Amino acid sequence: MENYFAELFERDLLKLRDEIKHFKDEDNIWRKEDGISNTAGTLVLHLVGNLSYTIGALIGNTGYVRDRVKEFTTTDVPAKKLIADIESLVEIIKNSLAGITQQKLDEQYPLESFGTHSTSYYLLHFYGHLNYHLGQINYLRRVLEG
Predict the structure, then answer these.
(1) 122 close to 111: Cβ distance less than 8 angstroms
(2) 125-137, pLDDT tens digit by residue?
(3) Which residues contact 123 (CB under 8 A, 6 or more apart)?
């Protein structure tokens, strides 16, 4: 069975990058309206931190240390920096998943956030998580910018 995880993560992380590029007013990346819990910028920081840790550190042994609180409290990061972080994350994921074997995918994932499951189960979970927030960012951009 061919491993498509790296390809799919790359494709959708580049969509995330493009969403940030498509904001006409950079201030809207950090804008919150009533009923909006997280800004688009916060969601990007969260995704970068989450995937840098769950794939980069735990699968690719990058040594990344996650600061989840900082993901949700940092504000006003320039769009250029967010874009660079996303592009860097694409490389981290490609390197972390390069040559991953079916045996490794079938092994128990080293973190048990949602119970004991295989690495492939968690990769599917992280991929869904990415796309959940990607959709939120797309919707926020369209609502905030008309």
Answers:
(1) yes
(2) 999 999 999 999 9
(3) 5, 55, 105
Q: What is the pLDDT of residues 3-41, one digit of tens each?
A: 799 999 999 999 999 999 999 999 999 999 888 899 999
| Cα–chain center distance at 141 | 17
Give the predicted TM-score (pTM) of the model: 0.94
What is the C-alpha to C-alpha distance for residues 46 and 29, in angstroms, rounded to an integer? 14
- Asked whether the CA dihedral 56, 57, 59, 62 is positive or negative, the reply is positive
Nearest to 38 by CA among 89, 85, 75: 75
Neighbouring-strand partners of residue 113 = 115
